[in-house]
Amino acid sequence: MGTRQQALFIIFGGTGDLAKRKLYPSLFELYKKGFLKENFAVIGTARRPWTDEYFQDVVRKAVTDADTSKEDADEFAQHFYYQSHNVNDTEHYVTLRKLAQRLDQKYSIGGNRLFYLAMSPRFFGTIAEHLKSQNIVTDNGYNRLIIEKPFGHDLASAKDLNNSIGRYFAEDSVFRIDHYLGKEMIQNIAAVRFGNNLFRSLWNNRYIDNIQITLSEALGVEERAGYYETAGALRDMVQNHILQIVSLLTMNMPASFTESDIRREKIYALKALQVYSPEQVEKNFVRAQYGESSAGLKGYRQEEQIADDSKTETFVAGKVFVNSENFSGVPIYIRTGKRLSKKTTRIDIVFKDVPKNIFGSERLGKNILTIIVEPKGEIYLQMNVKKIGQNFGLKVQKLDLLQVEDNSVQIPEAYEKLILDVLRGDATNFTHWEEVAYSWKFVDAIRNAWDNQQIPLPEYASGSMGPQEADDLLARDDHHWIFTSENDNRD
Ligand SMILES: NC(=O)C1=CN([C@@H]2O[C@H](COP(=O)(O)OP(=O)(O)OC[C@H]3O[C@@H](n4cnc5c(N)ncnc54)[C@H](OP(=O)(O)O)[C@@H]3O)[C@@H](O)[C@H]2O)C=CC1
Ligand SMILES: O=C1O[C@H](COP(=O)(O)O)[C@@H](O)[C@H](O)[C@H]1O
């Protein structure tokens, strides 16, 4: 049983997709594990006129799967209340305050409040302002704000947003969520890097040849076309998830495994990102859009709510440099896209060749450390070993370091972990404002070059691993993607 937490959750966007698919199931897991018990309540707010009963029914459905007992789901759902609320209407905050006060007393919560902004970022400023001006924040407990991505549209809008939130909430009570930081295998990066002298000492430009980060999705744009048209893969995946992974892979070893020390090093790594000129963008970044597939899948421009002449990229590949002492000169190849051959999130660290191959005509394979985040957590290392037999020959052997067996370990969902971190006041796995700012600075340079220059937007076949240009990017450096649709792990 976990340490009991007491808090009142106010979820803005309580009728939305994220709330139903991720937030309610995560809260339910915390409830089943005993982190939430008697002393918590949830107010869901949005404009539609739901009743408490209807809302509780939505919550019950959202948390029900084959393993859920009806009693647990019923008991849990009784902690949920609905308040029809337009975030732009000051009057509605008065009703919200009264409901919050009543529930605080009813559940003996002691003033702790967690405000989850699960809606469009254009509303964040006004919500933060009203929470303060209408006294929905308390004096007798903590008041924490969880903010969903995207944090702004570019550096200028992110600054505006940050300023408007910062007027009402201090940086240490703002939790900018990036759900990748809650993933078990992403958190494993620090364990592998800093817990093993073997890797700690090799983790630099003297031994690492290149790094490859792949976040590929098999699904298309699905129901989020309206948002995606304004974002594209660069803003949707690179600005946040991919650059966060880059920072975790390249940061210096923190003085201690604490929030402030880790943050300092992550900020330093992101500050060291090489920001490209338009000419460098053209050379080092590729964008593309998915086309129709021979299997009958729609191309991006044929999807609902997408313009026939949309220029939104659904795929990005690029070469990134972190110009720190330990990483300058190491190409970090990144790629992400929708409608690719497979849903996989993986990191391949490719080490340099031994300075001299003494084995004559025997070819040496590369040492590659692979961290698979999805679909199933795995870490393995490719090594050269002798082939068994009379003669001397070499072969590449995959050394399994970790395999998260299906069902053998209870892997908490990213949102579950992150919400618990917020309840505990631990912001280690959240994004600090400076990280956001340096990431936008890097991304804006690419976006501006794409918007202002005639940089091509090729199509790729749905079900492939992107356009030929993404392979050419590595081939020019005499490298290749370790993960391909044909071969999971070739060299
Ligand atoms: N869905 C996902 O998988 C992910 C989402 N996110 C982010 O989470 C946030 C929410 O996304 P998602 O749930 O998909 O979005 P949805 O469009 O599904 O939900 C938006 C919510 O906002 C409410 N809303 C809209 N306008 C108002 C208003 N004026 N006053 C009060 N409520 C309003 C809507 O309810 P109503 O219409 O009843 O008012 C609805 O509950 C976004 O920032 C998104 O980028 C981030 C990662 C993944
Ligand atoms: O933030 C986002 O992430 C999802 C992919 O998340 P994952 O945990 O399934 O890898 C992506 O589909 C979505 O477009 C983006 O907004």
Automatic annotation (TrEMBL):
Q: Which reaction does it catalyse?
A: D-glucose 6-phosphate + NADP(+) = 6-phospho-D-glucono-1,5-lactone + NADPH + H(+)
* InterPro entries, alphabetized: G6P_DH, G6P_DH_AS, G6P_DH_C, G6P_DH_NAD-bd, NAD(P)-bd_dom_sf
Q: Which GO terms describe its cellular component?
A: cytosol
Cited PROSITE patterns: G6P_DEHYDROGENASE
Q: Name one GO molecular function term.
A: NADP binding
User: Top EC class per UniProt?
Assistant: oxidoreductase
Swiss-Prot/TrEMBL keywords: Carbohydrate metabolism, Glucose metabolism, NADP, Oxidoreductase
EC assignment: 1.1.1.49
Record-annotated Glucose-6-phosphate dehydrogenase C-terminal domain positions: 191-481
Name it: Glucose-6-phosphate 1-dehydrogenase
Supply the source organism for this entry.
Liquorilactobacillus sucicola DSM 21376 = JCM 15457
